[in-house]
Amino acid sequence: MSEERTEISSLGEFGLINHLTKNIEHQNASTILGVGDDAAVIDHFGRQTVVTTDLLMEGVHFDLMYTPLKHLGYKSVVVNLSDLYAMNATPTQIVISVAISNRFSVEAMDEFYDGIYAACEEYGVDLIGGDTTSSQKGFVISITALGEVAPDQYVKRSTAQVNDLICVTGYLGGAYLGLLLLEREKKIFLETKGVQPDLENRDYIVGKLLKPEARKDVIEFFQREALVPTAMMDISDGLSSEVLHICKQSGVGAVLYEDKIPVHPESKEFAYKLELDPTACALSGGEDYELLFTISQNDYDKIKEVEGISVIGYIAEEKEGATILTRGGNRHALVAQGWNSFS
Amino acid sequence: MSEERTEISSLGEFGLINHLTKNIEHQNASTILGVGDDAAVIDHFGRQTVVTTDLLMEGVHFDLMYTPLKHLGYKSVVVNLSDLYAMNATPTQIVISVAISNRFSVEAMDEFYDGIYAACEEYGVDLIGGDTTSSQKGFVISITALGEVAPDQYVKRSTAQVNDLICVTGYLGGAYLGLLLLEREKKIFLETKGVQPDLENRDYIVGKLLKPEARKDVIEFFQREALVPTAMMDISDGLSSEVLHICKQSGVGAVLYEDKIPVHPESKEFAYKLELDPTACALSGGEDYELLFTISQNDYDKIKEVEGISVIGYIAEEKEGATILTRGGNRHALVAQGWNSFS
Q: Which of A148, A213, A257, B71 has the fewest CB within 10 Å, making it most exposed?
């Protein structure tokens, strides 16, 4: 954080909004009217709108002790865009509301919005509105993201078919291991004053937690290849939980192969160091924001050589349930141990 | 609140969402896909989408000591729809996120959602998605509302013209007086155990605060009369503040007449009882959710006989500033004393 500190109250709500939004330039032709009125206006050209929203609470979803505000802004946008990509849609606009207590300065909000704008730039979306208010305690972020899709090209969770291949993008479990690392270092720091966090050689897992990316590249690949997944969702609560969602909503079962689940070498190494099973981290750890999708076997040739897409199993009959075949040859039922903010 | 108490943790996040959304029936043909996937999908028929969002924080925007949860749900929707009507748009869909602490039960959430659904029904909008999460403290509500407008028929704040008439709907100041009443009764109740709140003959101001309505009827009237205001916004922060917004964004001045500002008889009576000036309550009190709009003088005949629409002044040159002519014949500059959550 910079050394200057301007109190939010010196600007007031409208002053703060003006300050934070004064450099907005729209990137989408469909954005007709943005920040500054009761609502924003979006045009359409025979396309369908896709809408998603997320509410992020300090102390529940993020810890400002080890989360830089700029990264938090960036990630807040990314987690919403990930939901749009998971519908096979192209993000176009976002609205963002924040509630802040008086412990935050204008400079702190600038850092947060730097991250918001960096994500808007990276993904080609326009910030078109929002709400800024005060909070008695803690930082609250609500983002709603809008995207477009050609008529009826959106992909649901409920349309996986028996014998489809189950695929994931990237590596799984990294964000969860990043969280364990940062929580451990936070604990050490709080207990032993003066000890600096040891994050050496942990760039991948720390980055995966603090600055995840949404899989725009994968959706663009689908469009280039004219490949439409039969079902898709993003992996925010852990692979097991998401596979079970697709199974339940599609009325099917699934078989996963442990040895096909992609785990990054740095994740494996850190998992072993903590005496954790890397596969368990991939199955139950959240926040990877990779895509889980199913495709017809006929489309296998289109993806088999693609770096960053792994076939990890297949869709089975509903009566077979959802199971995983371990390296040792055992078969276990998948259980949803994903993150639950109410447990 | 009912006597049963089911812990939210007994349902979990997905269980709670299923429970709260299981009876949704869509009312708009444009709603293609609603709750239950990564995002919702909306179709278009050569219309433009209008988007608005609001974040409501317990302890800042509402006090659960005197706000029934069902009313809170209803009002949360209404305040967003009011922003869409203020754009001359027809609301079609909402997404809603809530964060709750474990002091809320499933039954409490049911009451809150009863209010949400009652508003959806009343205004013909579909609830199509959202997010439900936990909060360390306090109840947080974020709603994003989407509406439709025929191409380029939306009405901005920045397009008022010199000599236009300034109009408002309904009565002003009532919600603020309702707030003063309920805060007074809360204080008495807390200081003197056993004393029940005295709200007799205060239905209008209490209702205006706890269960406001958005002016759907006025927008429908505009459509029937083919009347397009030159500028419009809703009155959420007090008349003065909103007139100043229109002046600033349109680059104009304004003259208001104190004796034309509509104040309900019950508001007047209670204001006098508190030794407050009813006009000051109308100018600076917030949360009325009436519409402030400007029309060309040529359209005066269309509104002059309409009950519930008052002409309160006219748009002047920018250099004349924004002023109010009092009953006593004095001229005062308008000052924004609207509600500011950061002050």
A: A257
